[in-house]
């Protein structure tokens, strides 16, 4: 009873949050159109050509851009992320309308081109979407939110194929493309209503909350106090504040002769200081504009006044210039990869997740062999998929509670272990066992994915979230395709019971590795 109450309360907290509710609504709406389109694209090509290979090429076009995730993810760190989501959704909506021109096998090049752009935009969209979550949802609710997001996605995967198949059968593929376009427009409107959480303002390219090093001002601008400590020479103190009105001090009153005006700029003779006099070479102020003598150039070396010191160090939040940031695009990509693979909190989860998804690909290739062992027709695989989706929906509702109680590593490890046991039990040719294993796989497999994504959102600096998230998606999901190829090669020569038990046992290895690490 207590667990049920806690789960209900956490879900209610997320749904009561205005921005979290809007974001979830956007996920549901766009997921409906996307899931329908992804299914119908292959059916559309199959009807036009009769070729299984050309139909399978649709999936290749959609998934291939995932391999470029580390590069594409850098785009999600440059513009304002909310604006990027809205622009991407509207652009895809317009692009999908071109599919009304597809009516014959000779038009399939257009469908493939749209699907390739669709997949590429999806990689960027998912990275920006995940990064935006960190600025719209309170950190204590990230686990609950990600669980609900997974529940929404899995629910759409169960409903959308039915809606897409019905529309396709009645009106054709272009109508499904129109549904997807409308869903993107609706999602863009919902994202436009999402507000940022205070203290996490989105930043443009190369900008940060405090983008100017301490003690420096832009040419021609008035001097502003920096947030960090500044040397006594250029920071007025509480005992002797300096302004243009009260600059004279008790020790050296100033008169009309030595007060500079707009017509008589200050010089070294009429600029008194507290302890050490400053000259025009080393003390430009807001009142005395910089000149060629007092502005460091490429020929004149920088001094202690214009180089950040221990009191004002450069950080990742400082402005990007040619002096402190590599300009190559590869360096930006490597920065995200390096952060993901060197952080001791993220690396074990990503490696375990990638291994798990590799094995899930092998297991996915066995589905029709499992159905055959039950003595059922291939259509029975649909029922097993429904059971798996139901398991994912249930675990999504309890994810936040379990993450708080178990932590990210144990939550992921227990989910992987549950998946391994379920895969091994698929060797038993029984309908009830097969349905139960499907539900258990659906409940266990997403645990490592949600745990990893939540950890990335919690432990990654905001300006790196886009590229780190996209890299994580690549390392997590790309191995699935490799696993499917391995499973396809093994399912014929190796008996199903042997293969199921072996794959299930291997699942326990990444689970044990996560539990061993503290």
**Mean pLDDT over the residues:** 76
Calculate the terminal CA-CA distance, rounded to whole Å. Answer: 31 Å
User: What class do helices, strands and sheet pairing give?
Assistant: mainly alpha
Biggest sheet descriptor: none
User: What radius of gyration results from the CA coordinates?
Assistant: 30 Å
Query: Topology as H/E string?
Result: HHHHHHHHHHHHHHHH
Gross morphology: globular
The overall strand count is: 0
Q: Helical amount among residues, as a percent range?
A: 55-70%
> Strand-residue fraction?
under 5%
Number of helices: 16
Q: Uncertain runs with pLDDT below 50, 5 residues or more?
A: 198-327
Task: Give the helix/strand layout.
Layout: H1 2-16, H2 18-49, H3 52-63, H4 69-72, H5 81-96, H6 108-136, H7 142-171, H8 173-193, H9 329-342, H10 347-364, H11 367-373, H12 381-406, H13 408-425, H14 431-459, H15 465-490, H16 496-516
Could you characterize what this model shows?
The chain has 518 residues and is mainly α. 61% of the residues lie in helices and 0% in strands. The protein is built from 16 helices and no strands. The chain has helices spanning 2-16, 18-49, 52-63, 69-72, 81-96, 108-136, 142-171, 173-193, 329-342, 347-364, 367-373, 381-406, 408-425, 431-459, 465-490, 496-516. The longest helix is centred in the first third of the chain and has 32 residues, at 18-49. The chain starts with a helix and ends with a helix.
Features:
518 residues; mainly alpha; 16 helices
Task: Explain briefly what this protein structure is.
Residues 200-338 are annotated as: Disordered. The protein has 518 residues and is mainly α. The chain has helices spanning 2-16, 18-49, 52-63, 69-72, 81-96, 108-136, 142-171, 173-193, 329-342, 347-364, 367-373, 381-406, 408-425, 431-459, 465-490, 496-516.
């Amino acid at each position: 009873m207590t667990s049920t109450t806690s789960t209900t309360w956490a879900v209610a907290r997320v749904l009561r949050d205005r921005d979290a509710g809007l974001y979830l609504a956007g996920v549901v709406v766009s997921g409906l159109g996307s899931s329908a389109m992804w299914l119908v694209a292959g059916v559309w090509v199959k009807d036009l050509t009769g070729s299984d290979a050309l139909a399978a090429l649709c999936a290749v076009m959609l998934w291939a851009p995932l391999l470029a995730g580390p590069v594409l993810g850098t785009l999600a760190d440059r513009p304002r992320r909310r604006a990027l989501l809205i622009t991407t959704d509207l652009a895809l909506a317009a692009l999908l309308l071109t599919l009304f021109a597809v009516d014959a096998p000779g038009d399939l090049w257009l469908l493939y081109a749209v699907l390739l752009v669709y997949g590429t935009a999806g990689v960027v969209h998912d990275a920006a979407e995940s990064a935006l979550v960190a600025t719209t949802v309170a950190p204590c609710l990230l686990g609950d939110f990600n669980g609900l997001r997974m529940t929404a996605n899995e629910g759409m995967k169960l409903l959308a194929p039915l809606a897409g198949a019905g529309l396709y059968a009645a009106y054709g593929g272009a109508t499904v493309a129109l549904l997807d376009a409308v869903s993107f427009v609706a999602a863009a409107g919902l994202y436009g209503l999402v507000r940022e959480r205070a203290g996490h303002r989105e930043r443009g390219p190369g900008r940060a909350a405090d983008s100017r090093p301490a003690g420096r001002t832009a040419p021609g601008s008035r001097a502003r106090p920096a947030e960090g400590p500044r040397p006594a020479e250029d920071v007025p103190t509480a005992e002797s504040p300096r302004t243009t009105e009260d600059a004279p001090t008790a020790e050296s009153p100033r008169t009309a002769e030595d007060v500079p005006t707009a017509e008589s700029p200050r010089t070294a003779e009429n600029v008194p200081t507290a302890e050490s006099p400053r000259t025009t070479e080393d003390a430009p102020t807001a009142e005395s504009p910089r000149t060629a003598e007092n502005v460091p150039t490429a020929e004149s070396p920088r001094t202690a006044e214009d180089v950040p010191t221990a009191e004002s160090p450069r950080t990742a939040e400082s402005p990007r210039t040619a002096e402190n940031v590599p300009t190559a695009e590869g360096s930006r990509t490597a920065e995200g990869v390096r952060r993901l693979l060197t952080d001791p909190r993220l690396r074990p989860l990503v490696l375990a997740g990638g291994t798990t998804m590799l094995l899930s690909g092998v297991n996915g290739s066995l589905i029709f062999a499992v159905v055959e062992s039950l003595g059922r027709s291939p259509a029975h695989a649909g029922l097993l998929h429904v059971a798996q989706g139901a398991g994912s929906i249930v675990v999504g509702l309890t994810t936040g509670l379990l993450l708080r109680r178990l932590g990210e590593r144990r939550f992921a490890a227990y989910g992987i272990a549950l998946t391994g046991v379920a895969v091994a039990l698929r060797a038993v040719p029984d309908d009830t066992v097969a349905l139960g294993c499907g539900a258990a796989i659906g409940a266990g497999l997403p645990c490592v994915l949600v745990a990893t994504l939540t950890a990335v959102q919690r432990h990654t600096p905001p300006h790196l979230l886009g590229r780190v998230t996209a890299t994580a998606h690549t390392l997590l999901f790309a191995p699935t395709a490799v696993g499917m190829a391995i499973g396809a090669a093994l399912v014929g020569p190796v008996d199903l019971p042997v293969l199921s038990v072996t794959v299930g046992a291997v699942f326990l290895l990444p689970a044990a590795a996560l539990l061993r690490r503290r």
